[in-house]
């Protein structure tokens, strides 16, 4: 980056222009950008430093643990001390999704018919 050392006037073009220093210097990137707010949605710390991440009470959440991978439930309680989340899961809805053997086949058939391949 070069600093402005003055301004000069061009009589022919009737313009004022800036004159820059020949010596350049660098500013570290972290001094050029502003810091995000703590609750910004792209902050990694809030989402990964705790086991319960951004789980909000009475909002839907997806399970990623091995026994319930992909099951959707509603957050009922967050325990910051134990770093756990309690979910209310609608068993009938979730079991019908998981145990319907024709779900994938029906979806693919519908997509193929709509695209004209079947």
Describe this structure as you would to a colleague.
By secondary structure, the protein is an alpha+beta fold. The chain has a domain at 54-115. The chain is built from 4 helices and 5 strands. The chain has helices at 29-32, 44-48, 91-99, 103-115, and strands at residues 2-10, 15-24, 60-62, 72-79, 84-88. The strands form 2 sheets. A 3-stranded antiparallel sheet has the order 3-4-5, with no helix packed on it. The model has no long low-confidence stretch (mean pLDDT 79).
Strand content: 25-35%
End-to-end span in angstroms?
61 Å
Side by side, the strands of the main sheet go 3-4-5
Number of helices: 4
- Overall body shape: elongated
Helices and strands, in order, run as EEHHEEEHH
Kindly state the number of beta strands: 5
Q: What's the story with the biggest beta sheet?
A: 3 strands, antiparallel
> Which oligomeric state applies?
single chain
Radius of gyration: 29 Å
How much helix, percentage-wise, in residues?
A: 25-40%
Mean pLDDT over all positions: 79
Structural class designation: alpha+beta
- Low-pLDDT stretches are none
